[in-house]
Amino acid sequence: MTSPNRPSNSAAPRPLIVRLRNWVGDVLLGLPALTRLEAAGYELHLVGKGWARDLLAGHGWPVHVPPKDLRGRVALLRQLRRDLRGRDPGFDRRLNTVCFPYSFSSALEGRLAGLRSIGHRYEGRSLLLARAVARPQGVHELEVYWQLTSALLGNDDPLPRALGLRVAPPHAEQARALLAARGIAPDYLMLCPFSGGTWSGQDKNWPGFLSWASAVDGAPALGRPLLLCPGPGEEAAAEAFSAAGAVVLTGVGLGTYAALLQGAVAMVSNDTGPGHMAAAVATPLVSVLGPSDPGLWRPWGERVAILGGHGRWPEAHEVQAAVLDAIAEAGRARRN
Length: 336
Hints:
2 domains, Rossmann fold, six-stranded parallel beta sheet, 13 helices
């Protein structure tokens, strides 16, 4: 039986507001849910951080950036509701918003704007949602978002094998121009020795990253350009890697970053957003997790090697072996 919230394949797309999470990794892990909703016939209108426009530009979805104050956020949602209701007379008579954040405030803002939201039953916000769904425990975060869309659509499609981030052509061109300007040869190796936040109060930066990167040029079969794209506030930490021979590109937007990742032979990353980006564009990824729980937050994809986790950092030789395997896999993929 088809859910009343699932559009007919023959019907014109129905507008749907989607509140995104606030971190790059979360947005990417929710990407398969977004493409699933679009494939089901929904016309997506995303509400999230400004960088989400750049990151998701290849998908063509509008991203509305909410103001910082409550009054401004509610006003934005009310205006969006008015606009979409004018195009779809049934907009207010059905579930019209997917709320991926778990916060009380995100549910409150939707309610004050008159939206009918589906979201997780969390932080006592059930009364603010038109439909509250139990948040599954002990599963990967991608599955949390996937199950919420299953509740909206009324079916249980199998989990996706890949995230499927699309790179916009202008970003691909910008990446090519950056590489040419710096004289960076093909088959470069990308590194992300940074991370935002902590895991249960523990640092997510691999302590051996710099010493391993400093020895890479002399490693058999691994001598190749090293490339870093530090984010805001990470420039000082990148200087040590620059001194070790890496090429540092600053001020790179997320869309161009994804294009650079798409052209890399492999990526080595701490537990942070760019690691999820590498997996999202199917670049072989060596993910160094340390304190993180890979069962809940590992990068999602078929070309991902997970090292460490649950409080254990990998040794340099483990990272080296995994990178060599990733490079060999990339070479086999090219030949095929």
